[in-house]
Amino acid sequence: MKHFRQARHRYECMRWIREGRADLVRVDDTDLFAAGTFYNLTPVVAEKYNRVRGEAAFRYKAVALIKAGGPVTSLDALRGRKSCHTGVGKTSGWVVPVANLVTKGLMTIQDCEGSVKAVGDFFSESCAPGAMDPQNNPNGNNPSNVCALCQNPRACSEADVYSGYLGAFRCLHEGGGEVAFVTHTTLNDATAYYVNRELTPPRQEDFRLLCPDGRVEEVANWANCSWATRPSDTIVTSAAKPREMTSLYRSVLVRAARFFGPGSREFRMFNSANYGGENLIFSDRTRVLEGLDPDEGYRQQMDAGYLATMYNYTNCRTKMRLCMTSAGEEVKCKDMQAAYLANRITRDLSCVRAGSAEQCLNKLNQKEADLMSAGGSDIYKGGRYYNTVPIASESSQTTGDGEDGYWGVAVVRKDNNDIDINNLKGKTSCHTGIGKSVGWNIPIGLLVSKGEITEQACDVPRSVGEFFSRSCIPGALDSKYNPKGDNPSTMCSMCGGADKCARNSSNPFYSYNGAFRCFIQFNADVAFVAHTTVPLNTDGRNPQPWARNRRSRDFELLCQDGSRQPVTSWRTCNLGRVPPHAILTHSDVSSETRRYFYDVLQTAQLQFGNDTNVKFKMFDSPSNSSNEIFKDDTVWLRWISLERQNYEEILGEDYLNTLTALDIRQCV
Questions:
Q1: What is the DSSP string of 289-337?
Q2: What is the mean pLDDT of the chain?
Q3: What is the CA radius of gyration of the chain?
Q4: At 399, is the pLDDT very low, low, confident or very high (cuts 50, 70, 90)?
Q5: What residues pair up with 4 in beta bridges, in sequence order?
Q6: Which pLDDT score, from 0 to 100, does residue 54 have?
Q7: φ, ψ at 575 (rounded to 5°)
Q8: Do strands 58-67 and 228-231 pair parallel, antiparallel, or not at all (unpaired)?
Q9: Is residue 514 exposed (0-12), middle (13-18) or buried (19+ Cβ within 10 Å)?
Q10: Longest Cα–Cα distance in the chain
């Protein structure tokens, strides 16, 4: 217990504990549910925020506050009334009432359209701060009545006077509301607020609580009339640990909290100020730690009302099965599944494993999966042979001003004057890898379509091996790309031979930088790389010995018209643009469901798209891997308009032609 490890995000911590690589982590209420559901973790101790003996550890109780003698006298009487909420997506003021009303069959979320529309249909008017924010209103069609009671209905922002606990109470007390969804302490806090401002404070006898079973109670009876209990943060460990080990953890933590609690004159466990942060390891407001029985499991920390928020708030009943092809993608998908559920984005995401991208395409076609991330060649295969359509594209830009994707270029030395795109036969070449976009699909497809490379019996690799005198084409002799075993050995001779020609990072000449390194070290005639490769490896930007003294002005690009240009002219002198990766689904999926899939991803990227997020990083990969599900340099997933959701439109004419030229099925 004396060792600490830093993970990339909270769900990686949970995974490490499940795998036995770590022992303990603090989790909040929703992550406690994810920890137990997906990682087999169990609570050891709970934070308590007071020292009252016998009182259970919890943060607050969610209650429905109404006016005494008002029109709300039962659950059924809530329909058509005026409601006050702390904010869309907030636990006590939104998630708890929505989930519980859905559970009871009083409120219905139609066609995955979201909770805001459901609230708008159920209540006549509301103040739901944040209802018009992009993450809560992705399609811009939320009803205006959900903001009618806010002080600024047009803005309806999270900064509205009637937002938060106090704001929701003021909406009830001052703003015409008939029910406010708040916490059990809100009325007392509001009383102090009015007294401090020398205003007439509200009287407790003027208010009542509406219980989840329809009873009406005095406000002092909140313990027996709450809609849900928000559990306190807990320290969890693996449920597979021996009982004596979990008992030791519990004993040590409880005793340490007793010695080093808020009154300690030495080290203070629950004070983060000295370490430049807040709530580090433990919550700063913690007073003691309460030991828990790990055998009772995580559900014992949650009452029925709170469990309803996890089961029903995000239950759209629309499958969202994501297909992936590697162990790293499967790990990330399962972390995504936990993060999406814990943060109440969706509970419909599931993970489907396949052996290859083409198997994923087939699973989409057979309706055994719903979504996959795909590069250019798989977008082509999916659209042409598996009835898939792209619904969103990855972007590495924070705005939509530039063009997404990247460009394939052919790099030569400036002093190698005799070479151009039309006389590459017999030259030496370096490629990122067989089947890769800029190192294979674009240049080889272009040369085939121009008639420079003539296919022999529909055998493109063998034709390429005979076209260039010597090459480094990582993977060219692998059985996957050389099933007959007759690809020329010269395709790997500049990598150092067949045993040094792997199509992965173990090969120093693999991918963009590797192909440029091959070009430099072996004095090749041409390198097929991305437009960013030369700038990133010259003029002092790459300190490695092979690149250290290289200058960008010593290289040029081959243009399709036979001319040559400086490496800075890649926009007008390139072999073709590679479109960004895209999210694919089956063409039979309705436009409404396609939009629902994207809305889920959009909500998630608004929460997790920033790589500094400590809870989950959507565009980052598990340790020791890269580009899992999404490319790591992605910053945004962009919706593709319905009229453009076809593979030809997304690939563009030039890239489509290169892929068609390399398509063995078209050749046959």
A1: EEE--GGG-GGGGS-HHHHHHHHHTT-----EEEEE-SHHHHHHHHHHH
A2: 91
A3: 30
A4: very low
A5: none
A6: 60
A7: -95, -10
A8: antiparallel
A9: buried
A10: 94
Confirm if 583 and 392 have CB atoms less than 8 A apart: yes
By the 8 A CB rule, do 495 and 519 touch?
no
Q: β-strand 216-218 against 82-84: which pairing, if any?
A: unpaired
pLDDT at res. 403:
66
pLDDT at 1: 47
In whole angstroms, what is the distance from residue 532 CA to residue 548 CA? Answer: 17
What is the average per-residue pLDDT within 204-208?
96
Structure tokens at 664: 């063995």
Helix, strand or coil, per DSSP, at residue 494? helix
Distance CA 269, CA 236 (A): 17
Q: Which two tokens stand for residue 523?
A: 């004095």
- Tokens 């969804």 sit on residue: 181
Burial (CB count <10 Å: 0-12, 13-18, 19+), residue 332: buried
Helix axes 327-342, 591-608, angle to 10 degrees: 90
Which of 460, 468, 372 minimizes the C-alpha distance to 429?
468
Give the separation between CA 394 and CA 576, rounded to whole angstroms. 18
CB 238 within 8 A of CB 40: yes
The answer to whether the beta carbons of residues 194 and 202 sit under 8 Å apart is: yes
Helix (H, G, I), strand (E, B) or coil at 364: helix
In this predicted model, what pLDDT tens digit does every residue of 541-575 receive, in sequence order? 999 999 999 999 999 999 999 999 999 999 999 99
Which stretches within 499-578 are classed as H helix? 511-521, 533-536
Three-class DSSP labels, 51-101: CCCCCCCEEEEEEEEEECCCCCCCCHHHCCCEEECCCCCCHHHHHHHHHHH
Distance CA 1, CA 90 (A): 34
pLDDT exceeding 90 applies to what percent of the chain?
71
Nearest CA to 403 out of 630, 579, 619 is that of 579
Contact 667, 454 (CB under 8 A): no
Cα dihedral: 417, 422, 427, 430 (round 10): 100
Amino acid at 466: E
> What are the φ/ψ torsions at residue 566 (nearest 5 degrees)?
-60, 160
pLDDT in tens, 147-199: 999 999 999 999 999 999 999 999 999 989 999 999 999 999 999 999 999 88
Contact 230, 91 (CB under 8 A): yes
Residue with tokens 């608004």: 606
CA triplet 594, 598, 601: central angle to 5 degrees? 145
How far apart are the two ends of the chain, measured CA to CA in Å?
64
Closest CA to 390 of 361, 367, 363: 361
| Helices vs strands, H then E, count in the chain | 19, 24
- Give the helix/strand (H/E) hosting 516: helix 511-521
Residue 286: strand, helix, or coil? coil
312: β partners? none
Phi, psi dihedrals of residue 126, rounded to the nearest 5°:
-150, 165
Strand partners, 321: 350
CA 453 to chain centre: 42
- Enumerate domains of the chain plus CATH numbers: 10-54+233-312 (3.40.190.10), 58-229 (3.40.190.10), 320-402+581-667 (3.40.190.10), 406-578 (3.40.190.10)
